[in-house]
Design a protein that fits this description.
Layout (H helix, E strand, L loop, with lengths): L2 E2 L7 H15 L10 E6 L5 H12 L3 E5 L12 H10 L4 E6 L15 E6 L5 H15 L6 E5 L6 H12 L3 E5 L10 E2 L2 H7 L2 E4 L15 H8 L3 H6 L5 E3 L12 H4 L6 H20 L4
Parallel strand pairs: 1-5, 2-3, 2-4, 4-5, 6-7, 6-9, 7-8, 9-10
Bound molecules: phosphoric acid mono(formamide)ester (CP).
């Protein structure tokens, strides 16, 4: 299979190479693919991933086909495989897919055009992890020895699961924190205030209500006071430490309104870097390297 499904498929050298390529694109390196056509296919809601992939395609001179999941023959019972196979038959050069099913791409193993995973269920969000790593690399110039705590709804988060695996491989110390009900033991647990005082990176997560089977055991206000990045907690952080969040953010829940755009926040920089990371991944795949 060609494209990008999970970062587990990539060596740390390849991950660093993609980040360096994205940094080069951000500095103005220009590469164009004017004869290529790529489909964006989003079966779950998205703003950043969907539209930053589209901006990345436009920046690369690639024609964008935005597949309308609500008006398509999927609603007549056509499978994901047959839908992607159809686009392959139409001569499309790649497909970007977000789907609610973990590992959906395993049903697409015989597809020959590159597939780019825009997020699968609770499992992987590889381009989000790459843009997070690019943002950390821009800030610190390294990964080894950095301490990061991912805080919030860990158990329902593909961002957490993607990042924990790759950050550990890159030599970072990764912790998780937040309500005990979201602790899936995917990394070492640390209390919220201790994390704020000791980490280089605090990565906040949205509460993923749409994936919850049961109602969360507290109000949003209580969550904010007990686990949110309040101004008080932001002031506990080390001078050089930064706040990240994959977004969408819920101001007043996992992050205070006044903290979302404070000088420690890299949230909007992450979004900008997402365009360059997605350009790097698509370009690398079209050049036959992914
Ligand atoms: N970070 C992220 O995946 O955002 P979207 O759901 O808006 O794409």
């Amino acid at each position: 299979m060609r494209g990008l499904f999970t970062l587990k498929d990539l060596s740390t050298d390849k991950i660093k190479e993609l980040i360096r390529y994205a940094e080069k694109l951000k500095k103005g390196f220009r590469i164009q693919y004017p004869d290529k056509k790529i489909v964006t296919m989003f079966f779950e809601n998205s703003t950043r991933t969907h539209y930053s992939f589209q901006v990345a395609l436009m920046n690369l001179g690639i024609s964008v086909i935005d597949f309308d999941t609500k008006e398509s023959s999927i609603n007549k019972g056509e499978s994901l495989y047959d839908t992607v196979r159809t686009f392959e038959a139409l001569g499309v050069d790649g497909v970007i897919i977000r789907h609610s099913k973990d590992d959906y791409y395993k049903d697409l193993e015989t597809i020959r055009i590159p597939i780019f995973n825009g997020g699968d269920g609770k499992a992987n969000h590889p381009t989000q992890s790459l843009l997070d790593l690019m943002t950390i690399h821009e800030e610190f110039g390294k990964f080894e020895g950095l301490k990061c705590c991912i805080m919030g709804d860990i158990s329902h988060s593909r961002v957490a699961h993607s990042n924990i695996e790759v950050m550990q491989r890159l030599g970072m110390e990764v912790y998780i924190s937040g309500p005990e009900e979201f602790n899936d033991h995917s990394a070492k647990w640390i209390p919220v205030d201790e994390a704020c005082k000791t980490m280089d990176v605090i990565m906040l997560l949205r509460i993923q209500f749409e994936r919850h089977q049961e109602k969360m055991g507290m109000s949003k206000e209580e969550y904010h006071q007990r686990y949110g990045m309040t101004e008080e907690r932001m002031k506990m952080m080390k001078d050089h430490a930064i706040i990240m969040h994959p977004a969408p953010i819920n101001r007043g829940v996992e992050i205070a309104d006044s903290v979302a755009e404070c000088e420690k926040s890299r949230i909007y920089k992450q979004m900008t870097n997402g365009v360059y990371i997605r350009m790097a991944v698509i370009s690398d795949a079209l050049d036959g390297n992914l």
